[in-house]
Amino acid sequence: MQAPTAPGAVVMPGVPLFKLQDTTTLRLSTTVSPGDVATLPLGAAVELDGEKKLKGTVSVIFPSVDAQTRRVPVYADLPNDPASPLLAGVFVRAHVTAPGVVNVLKLPGAALKAGSQDEIWVIRKGKAETTRIV
To answer: What predicted TM-score, i.e. pTM, was given to this entire model?
Structure first.
Protein backbone atom coordinates (compact mmCIF):
# COMPACT_ATOMS: atom_id res chain seq x y z
CA MET A 1 0.00 0.00 0.00
CA GLN A 2 1.26 3.48 -0.83
CA ALA A 3 -0.04 6.62 0.90
CA PRO A 4 0.89 10.34 1.03
CA THR A 5 4.31 10.78 2.64
CA ALA A 6 3.81 14.09 4.46
CA PRO A 7 0.98 15.39 6.64
CA GLY A 8 -0.87 18.29 5.06
CA ALA A 9 -0.13 17.19 1.49
CA VAL A 10 -2.38 18.88 -1.07
CA VAL A 11 -5.10 16.62 -2.45
CA MET A 12 -6.48 17.30 -5.90
CA PRO A 13 -9.25 15.65 -7.92
CA GLY A 14 -7.99 12.67 -9.87
CA VAL A 15 -4.89 12.17 -7.70
CA PRO A 16 -5.00 8.82 -5.89
CA LEU A 17 -4.59 8.86 -2.13
CA PHE A 18 -3.73 5.18 -1.80
CA LYS A 19 -2.36 2.46 -4.03
CA LEU A 20 -2.99 -1.21 -3.23
CA GLN A 21 -1.08 -3.99 -4.99
CA ASP A 22 -1.56 -7.73 -4.98
CA THR A 23 1.97 -9.13 -5.19
CA THR A 24 1.08 -12.82 -4.83
CA THR A 25 1.79 -13.14 -8.58
CA LEU A 26 4.22 -10.78 -10.28
CA ARG A 27 4.11 -9.87 -13.98
CA LEU A 28 7.46 -9.66 -15.77
CA SER A 29 7.33 -7.18 -18.65
CA THR A 30 10.05 -7.55 -21.28
CA THR A 31 10.69 -7.48 -25.02
CA VAL A 32 12.30 -9.87 -27.49
CA SER A 33 13.55 -9.40 -31.02
CA PRO A 34 11.08 -10.31 -33.78
CA GLY A 35 13.39 -13.14 -34.88
CA ASP A 36 13.13 -14.79 -31.44
CA VAL A 37 9.32 -14.88 -31.30
CA ALA A 38 9.16 -18.16 -33.26
CA THR A 39 11.17 -19.94 -30.52
CA LEU A 40 9.10 -18.47 -27.67
CA PRO A 41 5.73 -20.22 -27.22
CA LEU A 42 3.06 -19.34 -24.68
CA GLY A 43 3.65 -21.33 -21.50
CA ALA A 44 7.45 -21.46 -21.93
CA ALA A 45 9.31 -21.72 -18.62
CA VAL A 46 10.78 -18.48 -17.22
CA GLU A 47 13.27 -18.29 -14.33
CA LEU A 48 14.71 -15.21 -12.64
CA ASP A 49 18.46 -14.95 -12.12
CA GLY A 50 19.98 -13.72 -8.90
CA GLU A 51 19.10 -14.17 -5.27
CA LYS A 52 15.36 -14.74 -5.77
CA LYS A 53 14.91 -17.64 -8.17
CA LEU A 54 11.22 -17.28 -8.97
CA LYS A 55 9.84 -19.52 -11.72
CA GLY A 56 6.87 -18.84 -13.97
CA THR A 57 5.59 -19.02 -17.53
CA VAL A 58 5.19 -16.79 -20.58
CA SER A 59 1.57 -15.60 -20.51
CA VAL A 60 1.32 -12.97 -23.29
CA ILE A 61 3.19 -12.46 -26.58
CA PHE A 62 1.99 -9.38 -28.46
CA PRO A 63 1.38 -9.97 -32.19
CA SER A 64 3.13 -6.73 -33.21
CA VAL A 65 6.35 -4.83 -32.60
CA ASP A 66 6.65 -1.74 -30.42
CA ALA A 67 6.88 1.33 -32.68
CA GLN A 68 9.80 2.87 -30.75
CA THR A 69 11.97 -0.15 -29.92
CA ARG A 70 11.03 -2.41 -32.87
CA ARG A 71 10.86 -5.30 -30.39
CA VAL A 72 7.97 -7.58 -29.42
CA PRO A 73 6.46 -7.03 -25.93
CA VAL A 74 6.18 -10.19 -23.80
CA TYR A 75 4.69 -10.79 -20.34
CA ALA A 76 5.40 -13.65 -17.97
CA ASP A 77 3.58 -14.44 -14.72
CA LEU A 78 5.64 -15.57 -11.73
CA PRO A 79 4.13 -16.69 -8.41
CA ASN A 80 5.83 -14.69 -5.64
CA ASP A 81 7.43 -16.41 -2.64
CA PRO A 82 5.35 -15.48 0.45
CA ALA A 83 8.22 -16.41 2.81
CA SER A 84 10.68 -14.10 1.04
CA PRO A 85 8.73 -11.96 -1.45
CA LEU A 86 10.29 -10.10 -4.34
CA LEU A 87 9.30 -6.43 -4.38
CA ALA A 88 7.08 -5.30 -7.22
CA GLY A 89 8.63 -2.84 -9.68
CA VAL A 90 12.28 -3.95 -9.38
CA PHE A 91 14.52 -4.68 -12.36
CA VAL A 92 15.41 -8.36 -12.81
CA ARG A 93 17.15 -10.60 -15.32
CA ALA A 94 15.30 -13.68 -16.51
CA HIS A 95 15.88 -16.65 -18.78
CA VAL A 96 13.32 -18.44 -20.93
CA THR A 97 13.76 -22.12 -21.66
CA ALA A 98 12.75 -22.85 -25.23
CA PRO A 99 11.09 -26.23 -25.66
CA GLY A 100 12.98 -28.57 -27.92
CA VAL A 101 16.18 -27.94 -29.84
CA VAL A 102 17.05 -24.57 -31.37
CA ASN A 103 19.54 -24.77 -34.25
CA VAL A 104 22.37 -22.24 -34.04
CA LEU A 105 25.55 -21.49 -35.94
CA LYS A 106 28.58 -20.96 -33.71
CA LEU A 107 31.09 -18.39 -34.98
CA PRO A 108 34.33 -17.09 -33.49
CA GLY A 109 34.07 -13.75 -31.66
CA ALA A 110 36.47 -12.19 -34.16
CA ALA A 111 33.81 -12.59 -36.87
CA LEU A 112 31.53 -10.06 -35.13
CA LYS A 113 31.87 -6.51 -36.47
CA ALA A 114 33.12 -4.17 -33.74
CA GLY A 115 30.30 -2.14 -32.19
CA SER A 116 27.59 -4.35 -33.71
CA GLN A 117 25.39 -7.11 -32.34
CA ASP A 118 24.06 -8.50 -35.60
CA GLU A 119 26.73 -8.01 -38.26
CA ILE A 120 29.65 -10.28 -39.06
CA TRP A 121 32.61 -10.01 -41.37
CA VAL A 122 32.62 -12.44 -44.33
CA ILE A 123 35.10 -12.91 -47.16
CA ARG A 124 33.51 -12.94 -50.63
CA LYS A 125 35.69 -13.18 -53.73
CA GLY A 126 38.74 -12.18 -51.71
CA LYS A 127 37.13 -9.05 -50.20
CA ALA A 128 35.88 -8.50 -46.63
CA GLU A 129 32.32 -7.25 -46.27
CA THR A 130 29.70 -7.18 -43.53
CA THR A 131 26.56 -9.29 -43.48
CA ARG A 132 23.63 -8.97 -41.09
CA ILE A 133 22.75 -12.14 -39.20
CA VAL A 134 19.48 -13.14 -37.53
So the answer is: 0.67
